[in-house]
Structures are given as structure tokens and as C-alpha cells.
Amino acid sequence: MPSTEEERRPGLLERTFDRLLLRNTRVAAVQQVSERFRLIDLEGEALKGAAWAPGHKLQVKVAGPFTARTFTPIVFDVMRGRTRLLGYAHGAGPGSDWLRRVQVGDACQVFGPHRSLALGDLAGPVVLHGDETSFGLAAAVVAAMAGREGPRCVFEVESRAESALALQALGVATAVLVERRDEALRMQAASELWSQCSGDGTLFVLTGRAQSIQQARQALKARGVPGSRIVSKAYWAPGKAGMD
Ligand SMILES: Cc1cc2nc3c(=O)[nH]c(=O)nc-3n(C[C@H](O)[C@H](O)[C@H](O)COP(=O)(O)OP(=O)(O)OC[C@H]3O[C@@H](n4cnc5c(N)ncnc54)[C@H](O)[C@@H]3O)c2cc1C
After folding, report:
1. Where do the DSSP E strands lie in 103-198?
2. Is 155 in the pocket of ligand 1 (CB under 6 A)?
3. Whose CA is nearest to atom 23 of ligand 1?
4. Residue 200 sits in which domain range?
5. What is the number of structural domains in the chain?
6. Does residue 88 sit within a domain?
7. Which position has the higher pLDDT, 231 or 2?
8. Rounded to whole angstroms, how far apart are CA atoms 194 and 141?
9. Whose C-alpha lies nearest to ligand 1, atom 47?
10. Ligand 1 centre from 12 Cα, in Å?
């Protein structure tokens, strides 16, 4: 058995799959924003001309064979072939391990970008409800809404201090951060947001932990918000690995 990822030689099936479906990139920059957050720039000819919009996903091959984890590009320069992700190394898993070990110059194969959330033209007011895994999406939406009132954001997080650092690095200035373990405060913050926004044509974008999305969707439905004004995508769920 090979002892490290470097020593592992992909088999024929894996090599064929990679060649046909994956884009080859190189890690151009890694910024450790805090203990668990990393800003990662990927670049490569293969990214040039890709079709991308805010809310699309990019799957990164973090280990082999066929082990990918999903991220949300913050910006995508299709002319230069360069994109940026914010990764949250939550704990144990091949995605978190990759985030902790990734270095400038590493080869990195990606699948995508592909459509994930249908955000439309973002012309009206937007509320983002999510967690650490949604910060990249928030930054992409803030950039897309530049020059107008940006999205209102509520995020449930493990650490407010660490999350504030990450949001600062992304230029997401105003966000309500509620610690996940404080269930009562979390529900209160969400409820205040729903009552402020549910009547004004706001688009509600729900991402992050599956259970929290379900709660938010139920609360919005109870306030009469039509399903057409809610878009959601579970980014992770306890006990489930590698959601895409
Ligand atoms: C469309 C989409 C876009 C995403 N965008 C981003 C992004 O931009 N940045 C980002 O950091 N993540 C993003 N994610 C989430 C990320 O893909 C997952 O967190 C991923 O599962 C982590 O991989 P892992 O190998 O560390 O853990 P896994 O092997 O996938 O999971 C191991 C265990 O950890 C738990 N777990 C997974 N994620 C978390 C978490 N965030 N917090 C606490 N426990 C967790 C799982 O429930 C599982 O029990 C996105 C996911 C999707 C589907």
C-alpha cells in the first residue's frame, strides 16, 4: 500500500475519467485567513472560457480515486483562467485535510464549474441564510450586487470571532453571526430577519446545513413567502460525506 497521496499511482479507469472530465489547474495562492479558513486561488488554461455565474459550484479532487469535495467560486476570471474559493476545514474529512495541506504550486484537478443555485438576476433584495460554507457564496453575491444595497446575511457558525475574520477578508461587511450551539438566539435572529423581509419581494437564499435550511424554509412558508422566492441547497448534513 502506498504511504502517501504522492506515491499513489492512479489506475487506468481513474486516469481515463480524469482526462475526460476534469480540468487541470495549479494552486496559485493560499491565504490562511484563520485557523480553519483558507482562501485558495486556482489557475490554469483549462479554466479559460468556463461558463460561470454566482452560485455555481466547483468540485475539487481532494484525494483519489474519485474523491471530490464541493466549493463555491467567489470570483471567476474566465479570460485569465483563474478562480478563488474560501474553504472551511471543519474537522475530519478528505476535504478538510486537503484544505490544511494545500500549497502554492500544487496540481489540482477540478470538475466544473456547474450550475447549483439558480439565483436569477439578483435585481431585487436578497437575504442569505447559511453558515461557514456559505461565505464564498455571500462574497460572490455581494460582488454581483455591487453598486446596490447588498444582501442581508445571517450565518450560524462555530466561532463568531473566526467567522468575522473570514468575512472581513472577503469584504462581506454586514452579517449577523450567531453561534450554532445557541439554538434560541439562532432561531430569534432568523425569525427577526424573516419578519423584516417576508413581505417585500425578497429572494431568500438558504444554504449550509440541511436541517437549518429545512427550519428556515418552514418558517418562511409559515409567513406566507411563496416557494418561488426561496432557493436552497444543502451544502452538508451531519453524517453525510461529500455532498454536491
Ligand atoms: C454546492 C456546494 C457548495 C459548497 N461550497 C462550499 C464552500 O465554498 N466552502 C466550503 O468550505 N464548503 C463548501 N461546501 C461544503 C463542503 O463541500 C462540505 O463541508 C464538505 O463535505 C467537507 O468535506 P470533508 O471531506 O471535510 O467532510 P466530509 O467527508 O464530506 O464529511 C465528514 C463529516 O463531516 C461533516 N461535515 C461536513 N461539512 C461540515 C461542516 N461545514 N461543518 C461541520 N461538519 C461538517 C459531515 O456531516 C460528515 O459527517 C459546499 C457544498 C456544496 C454541496
Report:
1. 107-114, 126-131, 152-157, 176-179
2. no
3. 95
4. 126-236
5. 2
6. yes
7. 231
8. 19
9. 238
10. 29
